[in-house]
Amino acid sequence: MAKLKKILVPTDFSKGSETAYSVAQKISDTFGGKIDFIHVIPTLKYFNESIKRLGVPLDINKDVYPKIIDESEIKMKKSMDQYLKEKNKGKPIVKIERRPSEKIVQYAAKNGYDMIIMGSKGKDESSFVRGGVTERVIRKSRIPVFSVDDRFDPNRVKNVMMSTDSSELSLSVFPLAVAIADAYKADLTLFHVIELYGNRPEEIAITAQKGEVISIYEAIIDRVNKYLDKRKFDNIHVQRTGVTFEDEVILTDEEGSKGKTINLYTKIEKGISAHYEIDSYASENADLVVMATHGHSGFAHLILGSTAEKVAQNVRKPVITVRPDEEDFNKA
Predict the structure, then answer these.
(1) How far, in Å, CA of 49 to CA of 61, rounded?
(2) What is the DSSP string of 204-218?
(3) CATH number at residue 112
(4) In the chain, where do the E strands start and end?
């Protein structure tokens, strides 16, 4: 199962960014580890040049930034004291960068974080559910990004939804989805869309006896277990119960003994577009959405997959996006 021992929480001190604080603590209640806060100060390059041209005896780097950095650290420490348990408090980090989203992504990757947890919107506004900085972090990050808004209640998560197009890239998020469901003591639902004008999932044999939906369901469960075996997730296994669409995720301890059990449901819908069906189902039935950034429709090494991007921009539920590892791209 995925381990989330090191969490980075970006903040601009807005109400929107504050929504991530308690969520980070909830995750750490399960996995332990440390939570660091980061605040990125946008550079004042053009303002600094204007000051110099006017001959004002003020140096941005010496007179302004140090004070902003000190004030930012004080604010972050205060928030950490208020929202985090002492054993989980990490360090406050302040950086200066023209593009905050790029610094967040770079810092998280360079310093080995397991997850970025951030508010859907900070001070930046957008016509989308997720603001510009959050959207850019989701697009560029190579580690999982958990974006939440002020409507999210971490104490009322009953159903974690994981979308999949049945490809190995989309299934690569399964171990994390299991970890999140375990953290919230929630059920896990695999959601697949049969697009009416799209291509049938590759290599899935449809038999007349079982029909399209059952054939795809059984293939998805089989592919999940094959993925777990191939990637050596020896402590996770999907066990069929004999009830169609209702199975169990079995978690074992280090000695191989059966530990926790998570209810696993599979929901297959037919629709014109995957992102619309995902949005519709999540709005009514899920408390949190987990999805890989790439699947059949993604240009693996170039851009965020089109379905994932539309869901991340528009679904009005907390979303965790995960970019598959290079190993998954190479073997997909």
Answers:
(1) 12
(2) PPPPTTTHHHHHHHH
(3) 3.40.50.620
(4) 6-10, 34-41, 89-96, 115-119, 145-148, 159-163, 187-195, 236-243, 246-252, 258-271, 288-292, 319-322
**% of the chain beyond a pLDDT of 90:** 49
- How much is the pTM? 0.83
What is the β-pairing status of strands 6-10 and 246-252?
Answer: unpaired
The contacts of residue 100 (CB under 8 Å, 6+ apart) are: 10, 12, 40, 42, 133
161 in the same domain as 224: yes
Report pLDDT for 277: 87
Side-chain half-sphere exposure of 301, counting CA atoms within 13 A: 5
Indicate if 205 and 300 belong to the same structural domain: yes
CB 225 within 8 A of CB 237: yes
Regions of the chain short of the pLDDT cut 50: 45-47, 49-54, 56, 58, 125-129, 297-304
Here the tokens at position 222 are 């089989």
